[in-house]
Design goal:
single chain; 467 residues; alpha/beta; Arc Repressor Mutant, subunit A; Aspartate Aminotransferase, domain 1; Aspartate Aminotransferase, domain 2; eight-stranded mixed β-sheet; four-stranded antiparallel β-sheet
Amino acid sequence: MKRATSSPEVLIRITPSSDASLRLQVESGLRQAIHSGRLAAGTLLPATRVLAADLGISRGVVIEAYEQLLAEGYLTARRGSATRVARRCTESPARPAVETASTAVYRYDFRPGLPDVSLFPRRSWLISLRRALEVAPQNAFEYPDARGIESTRAELAAYLNRARATVTQAERITLCTGFAQGIRLICSALRQRGVRSIAVEDPGHIDQCANIEALGLKKIRIPVDHDGIRTDLLARTRAGAVLVTPAHQYPTGAVLSPQRRAALLDWSAQRGAFIIEDDYDAEYRYDREPVGSLQGLAPERVAYVGTASKMLSPALRLAWLALPADLASAVRRAKFQADRGSPVFDQLALTDFLNRGELDRHLRRTRLIYRARRDRLMNALRTYLPHLRAQGVAAGLHVMIELDADANERKIVNAAASRSIRLCGASIYRADPGAGSPALVLGYGALQEDGIGESVKQLATVLRECS
């Protein structure tokens, strides 16, 4: 009985009314599965009595089918061992002939927004995952609350209130699968309240704009300068909400000034509009005091969005929303309709990870590493490209460097790619790619420290060749 319950399953369709015999149907089903690659080389097949029971036919029929396929070389078996698919009978699926840009491997990858995934605390996370599963109550394995596990929401609220100066509680937190889903959930709730347009920063994150438009909302681009979003221009619009990155503007790195923060909150209160605060990398700061969240100043006007993508890993697909009361219920309904709730086990692990202080330890450790990489990058820029000015240096995982006025961004990006250097031009973040001064957005999170000097040296060569 033990062997039967551990035997693998194979899906084969049997039609009793077919003109073909049951043996031929079993043979044909297995042969087709092997040819198509559905049964890969070396795949363990179920015992004859198990497959016969699964198909509702006699064991003798299955034995005859196996023997025929063994004779043809499709299967292999030794005395006393299980039957498997023969290795020479399967074909590998065709691979793409051309490697796409998204899958290309670069020697130097300056892509912004990418942390060093090798720093992920595997051992600590595994401990948290095991501990969480060991003590999880039975009801944790049922369909979850769409907002997320209550213990996780409580730990997140405590962490955000402590580390990011928010003012929230578990009832206002919703967990989601990454920022993309988070902004869609908020936009869905805003639409239900009659909002038809959302103001966004220019330059700003292009994926955010795509998510807003996907929900049928109009986006209004508001310019950004060294003090952050131009709140004076925002006040002239009829936007029902605004999406901002106040702690470290993406991609310029500007910090929203105290005067602009006050003006933004005044605009929200007077207009009855909402602020969506994208706090994507505020935990990483080096040469300045921490900048508290906007949400903590106006928790009933600000929808706060945080994510584990920069702190831990994008692969976790964990993000969280701290919501005003007027949006919390609608977001919960939208989350339920979207996927009935995010995966529970990673939430349970995050609860333990936060409770044991592992996130704080991880951030302290990685902050030192990223600061060292930032310093190495700035030293290299001063050495090889001393005439270029860098912005957004004090925090985050990227800087923006301003190029000469006559520089051709696209030409530089393409020339760098030919040298296995991945670059992003600032124009891709602008509403009008031709507007604004040419610049490059250099992410350094995933660069190894000992290779930064050479990468900037190669970049300087590219810029000289393209001038």
